[in-house]
Amino acid sequence: LWDLACEFIIELGDKYFWQDKNDEYKKKMIDVYREQIKDLIEINVGDKIDLLKYQIDELKNANKITYLADNCGEIVFDKLLIKCIKELYPTIEITVVVRGEDVLNDVTLEDAREVNLCDIVKVTDNGTAIAGTNLNRISKKCLETIESADLIISKGMGNFETLIGCNKNIFYLFMCKCVKFCKILDVPLNSYMILNDKRLEI
Fold first, then answer.
1. pLDDT tens track for 46-85
2. Rg of the chain over CA atoms, in angstroms?
3. Angle formed at CA 17 by CA 108 and CA 28, multiple of 5 degrees
4. What is the Cα–Cα distance from 131 to 101, expressed in whole angstroms?
5. At residue 94, what are phi and psi to the nearest 5 degrees?
């Protein structure tokens, strides 16, 4: 986390990255950045460490990973995590899925290009303006990307809500901000979650 925090701060302070960004883009991301910095300070993985180790073990055997992105501001963190995965497992093929159109503060192709994510991995949109990943609504190309993956990393509550119970090898990473799911999962509000769809018992 210390290394990620340092790299994040460096990227935020890179004047060459920000100099051609318009005010609308900066304003859109400022609240997300503020929350992410707060999260880095407060994060405590606790008893989820065993599942995190299990996820790392799964990476060793994966050939294709589909990475379902979430908020536009978090794409900076996503890029750092993807870089780490590629360094550890250089033969793994990674495809990042973003939203097909603007919806809330979710990441789009434009946002991915802004941080040069497209330079290191393949990035595709899901063909929808839904704040999640509805397998019945996404494009055929996106569905094929998900179906062909050995392992799927899913970021955010919206992706979790629309994919839960699909019985795919998905690792969900999100903050549980929904009272309904907090009750179902028996966790306090705003808990940090690392869950595997195939191992869920709800």
1. 444 445 555 556 777 889 999 999 988 788 888 888 888 8
2. 16
3. 45
4. 10
5. -115, 130
